[in-house]
Write a structure and sequence with these properties.
Blueprint (H helix, E strand, L loop, with lengths): L5 H25 L11 E18 L3 E19 L3 E16 L3 E19 L3 E13 L17 E15 L5 E14 L11 E13 L6 E13 L7 E16 L2 E15 L9 E15 L2 E12 L6 E13 L2 E10 L2 E11 L3 E13 H6 L7 E4 L22 E4 L12 E15 L2 E14 L4 E15 L4 E16 L5 E16 L3 E14 L10 E14 L1
Antiparallel strand pairs: 1-2, 1-26, 2-3, 3-4, 4-5, 5-6, 6-7, 7-8, 8-9, 9-10, 10-11, 11-12, 12-13, 13-14, 14-15, 15-16, 16-17, 17-20, 18-19, 20-21, 21-22, 22-23, 23-24, 24-25, 25-26
Protein name: TIGR03016 family PEP-CTERM system-associated outer membrane protein
């Protein structure tokens, strides 16, 4: 009989999707006993999770809503390692069937993957790396920490990033050592109604290089560094975005550990193909002289008096510059740099502290960047080690070694993401990321503190985000664990052309997990979400709350 209505067509398509998803899970399960191994170097792992979720949503501007859902999520992970090649890939498909009291029934499918591969044909000289991911990104900064596949999924946009890089290095030279990397990255995203149907389709070309002295040079410590990045934006009216930088430093050691430092620096950013003021090259050049106290390559402090000038200024500025790299102990190190550029003061900080039970990593950076660049080369300060395909604290651990290198099939994971929006704008971004992990006896704790200030150079807009999160896993017995997490974010936006205001976002959950046999795990959890403020986002408005109860069963095979 012919299909005559859109509803019948939609129902048939839903049945077909369920059939295909069921077949894929069945085929994957049947293939479990077959270990596809290339000389025992290829390892496979499978995980299938099914979950039932009930939600009660209270939106001040949009009314209340009840949603009952069930989902199935198969995950396949693979890791391959040989003498010259290491590669990992993890992919999953999440199918969700929803029943909403006011909107009826619907279903959605979300595909995700991530990969990372490296080929080293000549050890310690030449290597090639490929990395990328397909995932769903939050499109609106005011919805940070809240949007997921169950809560306001329309605020998510499918995003794909791929990056290829080649590195050439010679690090064993007695007098000269060097390292250079060239890379190509492409970032694409689907249009979202939340972002006025804006979609990303950008390519970025990057090169970075360094030359420095070898170990045989002890009285004249020198280094040359340079970088160049070009992002070709698909919207031709926006123009191509270019940044470049160069730095030269010389430490002439005169008396014991003291010496004279000479330095010079250049940095610039530019937009090509525009006829307005933003297309002007904005460059800053400086040079300086000062003192250095140096005990070793990883233990020195330098201060310089500098003269600097922007390309559109006539007069030079005098400012103090500083650089520090100090390994206090084998467990604690700090590196920091302070100076100036076209946009004003600039600082970078990196700090690490590791003990047997506590590991922490902190970074602060200021850069002129874009969403495409942040997605193509994300920062990872992970302090927990997880198997590929698993990124929850309960299945991860903190290594005992202070200089731990992940084993095959493992990766360092951080349990938080940065707040940014899917757009093509150029951003002057100041960001802090502090990851802390603790593991001892029955308890594991993970904490993250973030701060970001995004100044949109193309627009009259500024967004500031503070966020903090805590994750805990407590082992109640041999097979039972208590898990909980809580996250808080305060987002403020100031603008004349766009909406201004602030939003406070809370997201917390508590649950129990129980291992059943060797391969199964059951979990029951309750969560609460709350958004309050005057920034309107997504389909739920500016003020809403949600209570959620979920029950899941997971099967794992490795």
């Amino acid at each position: 009989m012919a299909i005559t209505t859109q509803r019948e067509k939609a129902n048939l398509m839903a049945v077909e999707r369920r059939y295909l998803l069921g077949c894929s899970v069945l085929i994957g399960t049947c293939l479990l006993p077959i270990k596809l191994a290339l000389a025992n170097d290829l390892n496979l792992a499978l995980q299938v999770e099914t979950e039932a979720v009930t939600q009660e949503v209270q939106a001040k501007d949009r009314g209340s809503r009840s949603v009952d859902s069930w989902s199935v999520n198969p995950v396949v992970s693979a890791y391959y390692e040989s003498r010259t090649i290491s590669a990992l890939w993890s992919g999953n498909v999440t199918y969700i069937d929803r029943s909403t009291d006011d909107l009826g029934d619907s279903d959605d499918t979300y595909e995700e993957y991530q990969y990372n591969a490296q080929w080293t044909p000549i050890e310690r000289f030449l290597s090639f790396r490929a990395s990328g991911a397909l995932n769903y990104q939050n499109t609106d900064g005011a919805n940070y920490l809240l949007s997921d596949y169950f809560t306001d999924p329309d605020a998510l946009a499918k995003t794909r990033s791929n990056r290829l890089a080649s590195t050439l290095q010679f690090t064993q030279g007695d007098y000269v050592r060097g390292r250079g990397t060239v890379s190509y990255a492409v970032v694409e995203s689907e249009a979202s109604p939340v972002t006025n149907n804006l979609a990303l389709d950008n390519e970025t070309y990057s090169t970075i290089g360094e030359l420095r002295n070898g170990d045989e040079v002890t009285n004249l410590i020198w280094s040359l560094e340079g970088s160049y990045d070009k992002t070709e934006r698909s919207t031709s009216s926006l123009g191509d975005f270019i940044t470049r930088g160069a730095e030269a430093k010389i430490d002439a050691m005169l008396i014991s550990d003291f010496g004279i430092r000479l330095s010079a620096r250049h940095n610039a950013d530019q937009v090509l193909g525009r006829n307005d003021s933003i297309s002007n090259t904005r460059a800053y050049d400086s040079y300086g002289v000062g003192l250095t106290y140096r005990q070793a390559a990883g233990r020195f402090v330098s201060f310089t008096i500098n003269q600097g000038k922007a390309n559109d200024d006539e007069d030079y500025q005098t400012f103090v510059g500083a650089e520090m790299r100090w390994a206090f102990t084998p467990r604690t190190s700090l590196s920091a740099q302070y100076g100036r550029r076209y946009w004003g003061e600039k600082a970078t900080v990196k700090f690490r502290y590791n003990t047997k039970h506590i590991r922490s990593s902190l970074s602060y950076d200021e850069s002129v960047t874009s969403t495409s660049r942040l997605l193509a080369n994300p920062e990872n300060l992970g302090v927990f080690v997880c198997n590929i395909g698993q990124a929850d604290l309960s299945s991860c651990y903190q290594p005992n070694s202070l200089s731990y290198v992940p084993k095959e099939g493992e990766q360092l994971v951080q349990f938080s993401t940065s707040n940014f929006e899917i757009d093509d704008d150029i951003i002057l971004r100041k960001a802090t990321n502090w990851q802390i992990g603790y593991e001892f006896s029955r308890i594991k704790l993970g904490s993250n503190i973030r701060y970001s200030l995004d100044d949109y150079l193309d627009e009259d807009r500024m967004r500031r985000t503070y966020s903090v999160s805590f994750d805990m896993v407590y082992r109640l017995g041999s097979y039972t664990r208590l898990v909980s997490d809580i996250s808080y974010a305060n987002i403020e936006q100031r603008s004349i052309e766009f909406q201004s205001g602030a939003s406070e976002n809370w997201n917390g959950s508590v649950g129990l997990t129980r291992e059943i046999g060797q391969h199964f795990e059951a979990k029951v959890a309750s969560s609460y979400i709350d958004k309050s403020g005057d920034l309107t986002t997504g389909n739920l408005g500016r003020n809403y709350s949600e209570r959620r109860i979920s029950l899941s069963l997971t099967y794992r095979y490795e």
